[in-house]
């Protein structure tokens, strides 16, 4: 009775939840009690990884992009994430708004001005203060926020959505490894994968909340003139964000998260249009065209470039920007990928990939052009380098930039509201995802669990902000991205195996013998289906059924003046050959073929049983290279009919001028 009561109160998978909470507590205490030591250890680890594994990150992210594009243009793109008749749960606009808000909304507000300005004053290869520096600043910003970032999210999201909705597995990371681990996903290996994903999600969101509150407090201070930079005010902001996130999470995915995401996207578009109109409009429109062209022209080189041939400072720039971005996106991939998967049921794989790769990336390009190029123009034409001089204070850089535009108070207030809602949507969608992992994909979890995880996120962010351990934890999250990148490559391999099995399942046709079967002799047919034939069974079938049918056909052909013969090539092969001058001979042969039986089939009582590790089938073969088929269920009259059907096909093709080329090819006698 106790267990039953507990199961109605919680859907937690305790082998995942308890180790995760313990690990979070240990790392949190270490970062709080010894922040300088923690920062040193994690920063040293981060430096070692970015130095020795930058090539691995480069190739891994390239593989993710190539894989998704390849799947989208292949026949696999038609597969639906769910049953073949499944319909999308959310309308397209809501779907785009939710994946955008969860994936990059906070980052766009933080780096929309900050990154282009920082690249402008310290470009990787261009000369500072030249047009080339501005062009390179926008190119690198596009590269970091383009399809590569969304490919990282898309891989995890597609794998989880595919195995979750197509294979009916729990919507957790472990399910993506099902083709590799099989039933072991339910054991310690599966628990370990989910613990890793759960902890990474908590730390990734918590550190983002911590840094986001710094920007929010800087914006409030800038707009209101009051000092919001104190720790009590910042903790109060975290409490407010978590409270709103809890209310949103409690209302459900289809209400709170969806509504806030749509509001967010609307405000973002409004603010972007304001900057476009109030700023140097013609310059921004021209910049967007040139930025897109520059990005597309260099995308292949950028994908694989690691600055090996450039000076050391360029390589350091690459490790400090691109590699850290790739690691940061990978560390966020369990959270964003699972959220995208959760909202994508019913869409085709092609629709998923196009939607995830192109639409958010295009919006990112628009956003970065409007804010980034506008900031560059202001810095070089109006501010006279003032924005570049304050680039180190990224928290307040957006609001400093808006001061140079008309109605700065209004636009800064909208920006503050946008940042706040972005944080709420990140926190409430994060609570959904964390609860999903902790519950092994159970969608019927009680409301208090989502509230619990929202509180955990707030506590972790608040504790780290108090102790100054945010930088240490950020570095630790980036370090953790390396092993998860390896897990992601395994997920890619699993996805290909799953898609291949899906295709074979869809292409599997009824046996050839079913074309002749009319329901008679059903008992003997059932026994034959359930029995795994031996090699001797097939040899007997060739002697007693196939060869007599061939001999009757050959005898009748000879009576009609057509040269034909039956040859028992070996114990395992018999064929009928019709000799034709100036044409390829017609051959209808049947051979005993051997197939291996999977291990699971040998122990499954619902499948044809045998102690053999292989099965044997009488399979047809022809001289024109066509694939043969199994005829083991045919009786003699049906074999006769099948031979005549194939012979009639052969003659029809011989009389067709367009198809007769192969028929006239010489045969070796």
UniProtKB/TrEMBL annotation:
InterPro entries: BCCT_CS, BCCT_transptr. The keyword Transmembrane helix applies. The keyword Heme does not apply. The chain crosses the membrane at residues 12-34, 54-74, 95-113, 142-165, 192-214, 234-253, 265-286, 323-341, 353-378, 414-438, 450-470, 476-499. It is a multi-pass membrane protein. One of its GO terms (molecular function) is transmembrane transporter activity. Keywords: Cell membrane, Membrane, Transmembrane, Transmembrane helix, Transport. It comes from the Bacteria. Its main location: membrane. It is found in: Cell membrane. One of its GO terms (cellular component) is plasma membrane. PROSITE patterns: BCCT (PS01303). Pfam families: BCCT (PF02028). Belongs to the BCCT transporter (TC 2.A.15) family. This is BCCT family transporter. The lineage of its organism: Bacteria, Pseudomonadati, Pseudomonadota, Betaproteobacteria, Neisseriales.
């Amino acid at each position: 009775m106790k267990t039953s009561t507990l199961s109605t109160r919680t859907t937690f998978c305790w082998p995942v939840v308890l180790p995760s909470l313990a690990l979070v507590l240990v790392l949190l205490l270490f970062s709080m009690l010894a922040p300088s030591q923690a920062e040193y250890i994690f920063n040293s680890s981060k430096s070692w990884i970015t130095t020795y594994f930058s090539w691995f990150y480069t190739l891994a992210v390239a593989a993710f992009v190539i894989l998704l594009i390849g799947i989208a243009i292949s026949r696999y793109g038609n597969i639906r994430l769910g049953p073949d008749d499944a319909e999308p749960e959310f309308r397209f606009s809501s779907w785009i708004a939710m994946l955008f808000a969860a994936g990059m909304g906070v980052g766009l507000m933080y780096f929309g001005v900050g990154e282009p300005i920082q690249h402008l004053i310290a470009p990787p290869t261009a000369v500072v203060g030249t047009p080339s520096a501005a062009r390179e600043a926008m190119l690198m910003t596009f590269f970091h926020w383009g399809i590569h970032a969304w490919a990282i999210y898309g891989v995890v999201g597609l794998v989880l959505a595919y195995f979750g909705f197509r294979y009916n597995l729990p919507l957790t990371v472990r399910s993506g490894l099902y083709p590799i681990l099989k039933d072991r996903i339910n054991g310690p290996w599966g628990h370990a994968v989910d613990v890793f994903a759960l902890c990474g999600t908590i730390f990734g969101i918590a550190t983002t909340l911590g840094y986001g509150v710094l920007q929010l407090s800087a914006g409030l201070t800038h707009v209101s003139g009051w000092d919001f930079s104190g720790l009590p005010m910042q903790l109060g902001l975290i409490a407010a964000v978590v409270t709103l996130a809890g209310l949103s999470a409690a209302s459900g995915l289809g209400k709170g998260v969806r509504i806030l995401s749509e509001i967010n996207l609307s405000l973002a578009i409004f603010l972007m249009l304001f900057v476009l109109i109030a700023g140097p409009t013609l310059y921004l429109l021209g910049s967007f065209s040139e930025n897109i062209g520059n990005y597309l022209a260099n995308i292949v080189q950028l994908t694989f470039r690691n600055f090996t041939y450039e000076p050391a400072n360029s390589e350091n720039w690459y490790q400090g920007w691109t590699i850290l971005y790739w690691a940061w996106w990978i560390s966020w991939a369990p959270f964003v990928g699972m959220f995208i998967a959760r909202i994508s049921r019913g869409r085709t794989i092609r629709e998923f990939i196009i939607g995830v790769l192109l639409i958010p990336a295009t919006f990112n390009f628009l956003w970065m052009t409007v804010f980034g190029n506008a900031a560059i123009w202001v810095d070089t034409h109006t501010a006279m380098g003032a924005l570049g001089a304050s680039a180190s204070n990224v928290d307040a850089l957006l609001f400093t930039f808006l001061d140079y535009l008309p109605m700065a108070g209004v636009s800064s207030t909208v920006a503050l509201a946008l940042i706040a809602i972005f944080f709420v949507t990140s926190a409430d969608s994060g609570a959904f995802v964390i609860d999903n992992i902790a519950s092994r994909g159970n969608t019927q979890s009680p409301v208090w669990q989502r509230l619990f995880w929202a509180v955990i996120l707030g506590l972790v962010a608040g504790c780290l902000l108090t102790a100054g351990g945010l930088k240490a934890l950020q570095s630790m999250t980036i370090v953790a991205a390396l092993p998860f990148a390896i897990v992601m490559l395994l997920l890619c391999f699993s996805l290909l195996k799953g898609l291949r099995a899906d295709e074979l399942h869809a292409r599997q046709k009824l046996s050839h013998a079913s074309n002749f079967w009319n329901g008679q002799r059903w008992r003997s047919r059932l026994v034959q289906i359930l029995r795994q034939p031996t090699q001797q069974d097939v040899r007997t079938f060739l002697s007693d059924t196939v060869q007599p049918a061939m001999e009757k056909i050959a005898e009748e052909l000879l009576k009609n003046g057509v040269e034909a013969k039956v040859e028992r090539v070996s114990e395992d092969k018999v064929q009928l050959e019709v000799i034709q001058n100036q044409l390829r001979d017609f051959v209808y042969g049947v051979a005993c073929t051997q197939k291996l039986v999977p291990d699971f089939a040998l122990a499954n009582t619902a499948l044809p049983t045998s102690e053999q590790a292989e099965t044997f089938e009488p399979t047809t073969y022809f001289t024109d290279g066509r694939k043969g088929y199994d005829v083991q269920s045919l009786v003699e009259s049906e074999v006769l009919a099948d031979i005549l059907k194939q012979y009639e096909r052969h003659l029809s093709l011989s009389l067709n001028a367009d198809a007769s080329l192969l028929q006239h090819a010489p045969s070796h006698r």
